[in-house]
User: Which sequence fits this backbone?
C-alpha cells in the first residue's frame, strides 16, 4: 500500500509540474491607462461604494445587508 501511495504522489507531482508550464504567459504585460473622462466617474464610484459599506455595516457582527427584498437578510459572499 505504501508503494502505491508513493507512485501516486510522484504521478501527481509530475502532472503538476507539466501543467505549470502550460500556464506560462508569453505576451508582455502592458500598463493600463484610464480613458479620458473616466477618472471622475471612478472616483465617484469608489466614494459611493465605500460610503455604502461605512453606513450599512453592522457594528456588532460586521455583516452588511445584502440587496435582498428583506432588510434582515445578510450575505457573507
Assistant:
Amino acid at each position: 500500500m505504501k508503494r502505491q501511495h508513493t507512485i501516486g504522489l510522484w504521478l501527481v507531482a509530475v502532472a503538476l509540474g507539466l501543467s505549470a508550464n502550460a500556464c506560462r504567459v508569453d505576451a508582455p504585460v502592458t500598463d493600463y491607462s484610464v480613458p479620458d473622462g473616466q477618472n471622475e466617474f471612478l472616483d465617484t464610484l469608489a466614494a459611493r461604494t465605500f460610503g455604502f459599506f461605512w453606513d450599512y455595516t453592522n457594528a456588532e457582527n460586521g455583516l452588511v445587508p445584502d440587496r435582498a427584498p428583506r432588510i434582515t437578510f445578510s450575505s457573507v459572499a
In short: The chain has one domain: 2-56.
